[in-house]
Amino acid sequence: MSPTPPARRMRLGLPRRAFSQVLLMQVAIAAGVAVLVTGLFLQPLSRQLDHEAMQRALAIAQTTAEEPQIARDLESTAPTVDGPVQRAAERIRKATRAEYIVVLDWRGVRWSHTDLRQIGRTVSTDPSEALAGREVMEIDSGTLGRSARGKVPLRASDGSLIGAVSVGIAYDGVRARLLSAIPGLLAYAGGALAVGALAAWLIARRVQRQTRDLAFSDISGLLSEREAMLHGIREGVVALDRGGRIRLLNDEAHRLLGIDDSVVGTPPDEALGAGRTADILAGRVTGTDLLTVRGQRVLVANRMPTDDGGAVATLRDRTELEQLGRELDSTRGLIDALRAQDHEHANRMHTLLGLLELEMFDDAVEFVGEVVGDHRATAEQVTEKIQDPLLAALLVGKATVAAERGVALWVSDRTRLPDRLVDPRGLVTIVGNLVDNALDAVAATPHARVEVELRAEGRTAVLRVRDTGPGIPTAQHELIFTEGWSTKDPPAHRKRGIGLSLVRRLAERQGGSATVGDAPGGGAEFTVVLPEALTGAEPEPVLAARADLPFEEESR
């Protein structure tokens, strides 16, 4: 016969399911407790029954020794099987149902016994304590077997010690009483075991529901897989209990939020500080793909409640994506501006062709000089005021976009910024966001204008962006810097509500500030102050103030 395949062999040992294992362990524990309690109860019961038997034997011996006739007969007669001592002892034994009553003299010779052959012989156990005048209780073995004994001294009428009385209670009777108590005790133990088994079954059913009838090995494997998954994915995961306290953070959540395991067990407000991120984790702000800013990072958060009353929040880093989106916006704006310039260039070429065909050569030369001078003057004037190449390039591009949108973008003549910036990319982000918001604010308004002022005051950089739009209500001056807040519809490729929040975060990171107020003549004025934004301590000279001119007018 071929051996049984390994897959079909019976597996011995504990069952695999958690329900079966818990039930088996609980029943085993209940059975063990029942057996232990039964044993602990029987042991004192046995001692109690032994003590009661010895007390009874001692009482019978005391009663026998108090009979004055037995003492007189012991002194005046001989130890015979039909003597008065034997008859008196047998009468008392039968009345008390003792196993035996032995009366002995001071030499230890028996004068009475249930076995008549033992009368006149010396006792088999040591009578010295009783013959010394002391009462004795004990469990001992003699000629009649094991018994509970009571021994008392026997005295004459004058008080002299003439012998002793020994009474025995059959130990089998004590054992019988003990055994008779066991069935009732086992009944109680069985009832307790049944109750314990029922409780074990209920607990096992609860465990079965909570573990979904998985084996403990499966649960252990799931926990290991969960740990590997949580710490391996590139999304931050934050788990909260039903009390709203943080109970789990994976590695990515540590990195994105900038916190460590010391915050476990604390609410989000305490761990992160007041803000939109804490509000999202706590569930005070609801929705899907919620934008929030943590430090320099733009995060997308989602929060899902769990069955136990807690919640799990996931965090995705959208910083690079937001930067790409803003670059895409700028690129699209530049493309639109180039398209407009191409159209304008074609018109100029047609004009130049007409002048040439009309042989108006002097006018053609003057026209070409004016067109070339426009563009050269605009770039030169920006770079003269703003010596940092990144910021200068940004404003030249924004001026082109503004012209296409019918907005006059002005650079204040008070602008003067040397090429000594500590973080030029951060300032580019701030200026770009504020200019974009200003262009959106003045869109489709008459005489739309945006003015940019950038100047250095020692090592501090001060930026002001003014527009001629509808302005911002005073009640919303702080609200507009909140992540996710916006009055405009989002573009298709990204969400709004983070530009101004990033501006404030970048400013505060450098120890500065970002505020908004009302511009002179209407509109909004954003002011950003960046201490220690420039290297070196020497302030740059400020140009003499003169009337601000738009790029188009300054080039003429």
UniProtKB/TrEMBL annotation:
GO biological process, any: phosphorelay signal transduction system
Boundaries of every Histidine kinase domain copy: 423-534
Keywords for the protein's UniProt record, in alphabetical order: ATP-binding, Cell membrane, Kinase, Membrane, Nucleotide-binding, Phosphoprotein, Transferase, Transmembrane, Transmembrane helix, Two-component regulatory system
Enzyme Commission code(s) on record: 2.7.13.3
Broad class of where this protein is predominantly found: membrane
Residues making up the signal peptide according to the UniProt record: none
CDD domains: HATPase_DpiB-CitA-like
Alphabetized InterPro entries for the sequence: HATPase_C_sf (IPR036890), HATPase_dom (IPR003594), His_kinase_dom (IPR005467), PAS (IPR000014), sCache_3 (IPR033463), Sensor-like_sf (IPR029151), Sig_transdc_His_kin-like_C (IPR004358), Sig_transdc_His_kin_SpoOB (IPR016120)
Cell compartments where the protein resides: Cell membrane
Tree of life domain: Bacteria
SMART domains recorded: HATPase_c
Pfam families for the chain: HATPase_c, PAS_8, sCache_3_2, SPOB_a
GO cellular component terms, semicolon-separated: plasma membrane
GO molecular function: ATP binding; protein histidine kinase activity
Chain residue ranges for the region called Disordered: 537-556
Bilayer topology: Multi-pass membrane protein
Catalytic activity field: ATP + protein L-histidine = ADP + protein N-phospho-L-histidine
Transmembrane segments: 21-42, 185-204
PANTHER family recorded: SENSOR HISTIDINE KINASE TRCS, SENSOR HISTIDINE KINASE YKOH
Protein known as: histidine kinase
Species of provenance: Streptomyces doudnae
